[in-house]
């Protein structure tokens, strides 16, 4: 089982590192996409976030920009996208855009007022051995992504779905201590 953890916008393309708080290895997204511009969040925000959110890839050109993966047909994957605006463009305008899996809309990314970040995840069953995750421009703002993670799920993990995908609605964890859980 191979996890894919992409730090979007990380350059150069062959860069790899281990995020110290989670011990997860991140690689550059450059081998999975051939469009977009590598950018960085405002330096003053970096101490507040994990390293995989310091960079991002923005897509000022084109209506639809897609990541491409070769994976395993009929396998379930947990797919998670992180979006940290961090005023990377100096415009201080929170972007909104759509996220697609292939030709099917996954979700609309809309950062909350007063917020900087958005995360969404879905459990998706692959119908073929290829996967496209696309950012689609829906208005005047520029789509972007900070990190993208794909986790193959064990075949004994049972999720029943009529459509083949399950979206995250909420995840709650009540802990007696303020610990970071991944």
From TrEMBL:
Superkingdom as given in the UniProt entry: Eukaryota
Domain Malectin-like per the UniProt entry, residue ranges: 6-178
Signal peptide feature range: none
Gene Ontology CC: one annotated term: membrane
Record's subcellular location: Membrane
Keywords (A to Z) from UniProt: Membrane, Signal, Transmembrane, Transmembrane helix
Membrane topology: Single-pass membrane protein
Alphabetical list of InterPro entries matching this protein: Malectin-like_Carb-bd_dom (IPR024788)
Name under which the protein is recorded: Malectin-like domain-containing protein
């Amino acid at each position: 089982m191979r996890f894919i953890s992409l730090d979007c916008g990380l350059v150069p393309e062959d860069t790899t590192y281990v995020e110290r708080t989670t011990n997860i290895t991140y690689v550059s997204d450059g081998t999975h996409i051939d469009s977009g511009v590598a950018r960085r969040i405002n330096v003053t925000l970096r101490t507040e976030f994990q390293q995989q959110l310091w960079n991002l890839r923005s897509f000022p050109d084109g209506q639809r920009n897609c990541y491409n993966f070769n994976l395993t047909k009929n396998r379930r994957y947990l797919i998670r996208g992180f979006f940290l605006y961090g005023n990377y463009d100096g415009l201080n305008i929170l972007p909104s855009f759509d996220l697609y899996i292939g030709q099917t809309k996954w979700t609309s990314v809309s950062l909350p007022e007063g917020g900087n970040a958005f995360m969404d995840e879905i459990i998706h069953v692959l119908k073929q051995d290829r996967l496209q995750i696309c950012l689609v421009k829906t208005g005047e703002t520029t789509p972007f992504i900070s990190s993208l993670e794909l986790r193959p799920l064990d075949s004994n993990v049972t999720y029943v779905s009529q459509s083949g995908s399950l979206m995250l609605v909420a995840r709650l964890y009540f802990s007696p201590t303020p610990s970071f859980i991944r």
